Amino acid sequence: MAEKISPGMQQYLDIKKDYPDAFLLFRMGDFYELFYEDAVNAAQILELTLTSRNKNSAQPIPMAGVPHHAATEYIDKLVNLGYKVAVAEQMEDPKKAVGIVKRAVTQVITPGTTIDHANAVDNNFLVAIEQQEQRFALSYMDLSTGEFKVTVLQDFSAVVGEIASLKAREVVIGFLLDESQKKILDKQMNLLLSEQLDLPETLQMEHGDLSAIEEQVALKLLAYVKRTQMRDLSHLQEVEHYEIKDFLQMDFATKTSLELTVNKRENKKHGTLYWLLDETKTAMGTRMLRTWIERPLISEVAIAKRMAIVQLFLDHFFERSDLIEALKGVYDLERLASRVSFGKALPVDFLQLAHSLSNVPAIKNILELLPQEQMKQLIERLDALPELADLIHQSISEEASRTITEGGIIKTGYNPQLDKYREALENGTSWIAQLEATEKARTGISTLRIDYNRKDGYYFHITQSQLDSVPEHFFRKATLKNSERFGSQELTEIEEIMLEAREKSSILEYELFMSVRDQTEQYISRLQALAKTIAEIDCLQSLAVVAEKQGYVRPVLTENSRHVEIKAGRHAVVEAVMGAQEYVPNDIALPEQTDIQLITGPNMSGKSTYMRQFALTVIMAQIGSFVPAESAALPIFDAIFTRIGASDNLISGESTFMVEMSEANHAIQKATSRSLIIFDELGRGTATYDGMALAQAIIEYVHEHIGAKTLFATHYHELTELDQTLEHLDNVHVATLEQNGNVTFLHKITEGPADKSYGIHVAKIAGLPSDLLERADLILQKLENKPLPAKKVEAQEEQLSLFDIDENYSEIIDKLKDLNVDNMTAREALNFLWELKDAL
Ligand code: ADP
Ligand code: MG
């Protein structure tokens, strides 16, 4: 039989009912307690001691607790692991409560809404998705910076691509997912899925031009955030529409294989394009650069604008150095603004804000030294918020402590009343010093001193041995082991004045601080705009620094051209890692008429590197960066598709070949004549003829129906003959140097097809045993004497017989012809077979 539930537990259960998917932290005195399953699970995850409530009853309730002062740490840990945490606080002073203390959830912290990560620079995007018939809408928000955007997407794979590129950890689902959608988001992408199927009718949102489905998804996102955060969100920016079509499109596979912002090995920044280009000095700049790399531009004008400024920064070394110094003094304005909005800003945050603002005029002055139309726009947007700077400068003390309850926050001179209290406190201090001296002289107690503590207030400290000399007008306040504490009429009077001043001044300081906070809130949107401008300046100086350091050139981009000509190009990241001396530069030329370049060459010769080099150069150029080359002329591409390497798609668990084919399909379906396609060893994942046939058919298809600029690396040398039938296809190969049976890879791309594969040479480099290598050589010679599959796949040409190409076989055939099988003994037949085999 169920026992009667205590009123406290009933309150817990009532609250928990509304938060079934979250750990409920239930404030009880100095602890947050967890109960039931929450307690069992949290105890395991957080290594807490699991105890129980009602220990001796028939049904003890599992319980675990964390001390309130350490709660943030535990909450962070849970949230980082992908859980939600609901925090229920005591809503009234327990001492004054009648019956059970009122409690309510004051915030739900989720992976997509947490903003308290100490010193994290990265964005934390929370995404919401909505489906209407075949269309999708996606909205995302970073609660820590206030960024809020929305777009429409045509298919679910685009949705998945956006979520991945935003690196979101939590997705708010606005519709009922079907099984396959659920599987992808939940199982494969390991996202926390939070539902927001309905919309509160009262919810309102300001926005510009949005379609109905966009408004719907943005509202659902907002509803979810309001529901979980339960606090002021005044820093949220107006939701802004964007189009993925306005940027160079790259799907998730492409971004991953090109290692744009995270490397494949550890999912970290190191060794990526982002890593290479990041010389930013501000947190906003660092975040913006990542977005630039995820979303290169496609507008010639917009790209030219960025490049013009990079050029200016490049040309003005001293101004740039000063600029960099000034940028270093700018803190994370976006995060500071959101802390203000959340009411979480501490005195130190205001000091950082003021310090940042004080650097803005310097930045402005430096930019003004660079006369240029584009600069002018940036300069105009640089708003130093002098009113806010003044406010903080006048109100917040440079020595302010990190807390807001200790006092000492507000500067003297800011508020006359506060100054009076402070004067009283100061006077009191000297009165006390005087009183101490007077009483010391009067009583003759040399060790007499006046001390203060919270419990006893001000008191005369008298040691045991001096007790006899205590005068009449002292009264006892407390007795300790070796001393006693006394008061006096005079001391009490001073104390009262001081206590009042102290109490009132700390209340007043708090009020003044709150008012500074409130006043600052009015500047949030201006602060956010300033943050964006500074981020942009920071990104551009970063690109200039890298361009100078790595010796890049400004590419010439032409929107409507189809002409690619890169002289002495390099792979930006490989070069940076291996050193410029080691890297062999390569020209890349695809004139107007050439769509497809077929690249052959031995393994490890540099085919993949060459192709990636091209893709990265295109991306860098469209970001507005200079590029690693002696010169570069490029069209502006609308999309990049890649099928690179034979690595399995781990998240989906599909087989290599299936992944290859679906990526190839994606490219073929979506690419236009303005796209760039990179196919690396396509067809490798299946049987040779199968793969070769598909590879050829795909090349022909791209050639006939798409006309995208395409680099196709292959180990099927047979495909090189395609240049005879396909007008827009060129052969290139990676040159090798063969000397005394040793092969050196020159990593140099050269016209025409390659003639040999040097796989055995690679095996030799890899250190395989020499007799094994000899054997491989022998097998190779035999195989090479075998006919290869038909170049143009025509039926009759495939009827080639095993023996008709090599003269060595003719002897064997002659012998076979001469043979009189009827006259042979079994032994002779066997011997003859051996003979044949040996000859072969
Ligand atoms: P492939 O695709 O032909 O098998 P890769 O492009 O993977 O060859 O290159 C193999 C290795 O050769 C790379 O790891 C790289 O270190 C080196 N390499 C490739 N291209 C160059 C180059 N242009 N200069 C110097 N080293 C290169
Ligand atoms: Mg390769």
Protein topology:
Layout: H1 7-17, E1 22-28, E2 31-35, H2 36-46, E3 51-53, E4 61-67, H3 71-80, E5 84-90, E6 103-109, E7 125-132, E8 135-142, E9 147-153, H4 156-166, E10 170-173, H5 179-188, E11 192-195, H6 212-229, E12 240-241, E13 249-250, H7 252-257, H8 273-277, H9 283-294, H10 300-315, H11 317-328, H12 333-341, H13 347-368, H14 373-381, H15 386-395, H16 416-443, E14 449-453, E15 457-463, E16 474-479, E17 483-488, H17 489-521, H18 524-550, E18 556-558, E19 564-569, H19 572-578, E20 586-590, E21 596-600, H20 607-623, E22 631-635, E23 639-643, H21 656-670, E24 675-680, H22 688-706, E25 709-713, E26 729-739, E27 742-751, H23 759-765, H24 770-784, H25 808-818, H26 826-839
Helix pairs in contact: 9-18, 10-18, 11-13, 12-18, 13-15, 15-17, 16-17
Adenosine-5'-diphosphate (ADP) binds at residues 582-584, 586, 601, 603-609, 747.
Name of the top-level CATH class of the largest domain: Alpha Beta
**How would a textbook summarize the main sheet?**
7 strands, mixed
Range of strand content? 15-25%
Q: What small-molecule ligands were found?
A: adenosine-5'-diphosphate, magnesium ion
Would you count the extended β strands for me? 27
The appropriate CATH architecture of the largest domain is 3-Layer(aba) Sandwich
Q: What is the number of helical segments per DSSP (H or I, 4+ residues)?
A: 26
Count of folded domains: 6
Distance between the termini: 88 Å
Mean pLDDT: 89
Strand order of the largest sheet: 13-23-24-25-21-26-27
Q: Structural class, please?
A: alpha/beta
Judging from the principal axes of the Cα atoms, what is the shape?
elongated
**Helix amount:** 40-55%
By CATH, the superfamily of the largest domain comes out as P-loop containing nucleotide triphosphate hydrolases
Query: Can you tell me the CATH topology of the largest domain?
Result: Rossmann fold
